[in-house]
Amino acid sequence: MKLRFGNQWLLPLLAFLALFVGAIASGSRSAHAATGNLVGSVTFAADCSSGLGVGITFDGTNLWFSCVGSATDLYKASPTTGAILGSFSVKGGLGALAWDNSRGKLWAGAGCGPGQGGGEIYLIDPVTGVGTLQFTLAGAGNCLDDGLAYDGGNDSIYWSWDGSTVIRHVSSAGISLPDDGFPWGGNACYNSGLAIGGSLLYQGSDGCSHVWVVDKTTKAAAFDFSTVTPGDPNFRDEGLTCDNVTFKSSGKEVMWSKEAYSPNRAHAFEIPSGSCAFGGGAKGPDLTITKDPKPGQPAPVPGGYYSFIIRVKNAGNAATPPPPRDVFVRDDLSLMGTFVFWTASAGVCTNNAPFVDCSRGSMAPGEEWWIEIRVRLPGNACQVTDRAVVDPFNRIPETNELNNSATLTVAIPRPGC
Ligand SMILES: [Ca+2]
Ligand SMILES: [Ca+2]
Prior knowledge:
The chain has one helix at about 10-30, and strands at about 40-45, 55-60, 65, 75, 85-90, 95-100, 105-110, 120-125, 130-135, 145-150, 155-160, 165-170, 180-185, 190-195, 200-205, 210-215, 220-225, 240-245, 255-260, 265-270, 285-295, 305-315, 330, 340-345, 350, 355-360, 370-375, 385-390, 405-410. It is mainly β. The strands form seven sheets. Strands 25-26-23-28-29 form a five-stranded antiparallel sheet, with no helix packed on it. About 5% of the residues lie in helices and about 40% in strands. It folds into two domains: about 10-280, Neuraminidase; about 285-410, Immunoglobulin-like, CATH 2.60.40.740. It is built from one helix and 29 strands. Bound molecules: calcium ion (2 copies). The site of one calcium ion has 8 residues, from strand 21.
């Protein structure tokens, strides 16, 4: 937004009327012209004490919005009724918001709170409302950030300050990326809201009521659409957020766009299906593994039996791509002992000494798989060690390939060790 003052007294009535006009407009257009159709509107049950709030984001269930220069600067609200479900005093002022579905937290920019210069980027716990400064970006023109997007595809942040025509692109640690500082996609006004949840970057334009969409890598224009809202003539794009959930029953995915001035409200515009998942896009498959001694067994003795438990999890939360198939674990017993037996929550293990190879079918997001392996320990070792690897031949692409092995070392008390 460009900071300004406006006459807003007609807006409650006009926002109400917009629902009806928008519905008529949607119904009168062909299915081919769906992008940009007004799908829904919400007026939140609380205004900011300053009268200004630019941030909006969707966490998969609810909308969150922020307030500039206000003691209460963060609200959680229903996307359908606008009812307030939670409120927080985080920093005395917040700007743009972006839900991070990988971390389950909110990224937030500055909103003219005490001491803020405009470049501060916070990560906020949605339960406690505690916000922690992550880094501060240079280049802010004033104390307000009105554009922030989190890209779960590569754990990065897009940021543009109030009145900007360039967009910063940094890692989640604030490190400049190769395309950092690229020009925005619009041809008039300034960039305000930013949103991403796939390969496209959505860019709002305060003052021009238009959303420009570019390929995030090449920056080539993909499409654009108007957000001029009948019955709400002062409405402009300040914050943007993708929502592929709220209107799913009607087969629609939307971009919420938030107005800065009271009454606190947002309109939802249809976007192409699959083009922008909430929260920066879901996290794809990520197999993880741990290995621990089986609890409750006697202390290890030379030549005795010993059991350990391997736990594999698909830590991703993505419905697409499909869950990884043929998940495979190789456990190396060469420095551990001799195989005795296995048992598992799913799948089959085979003794291919010195390996135990275990395989099962697909693993849905969040699904866990445990394998218990029993060995006979050597009679002459002071300690044994064992390494298990999931997807050892890397046949499954994952968001993190570096967390696929676990090592267990067990000391065997005996004289001379
Ligand atoms: Ca992994
Ligand atoms: Ca892999």
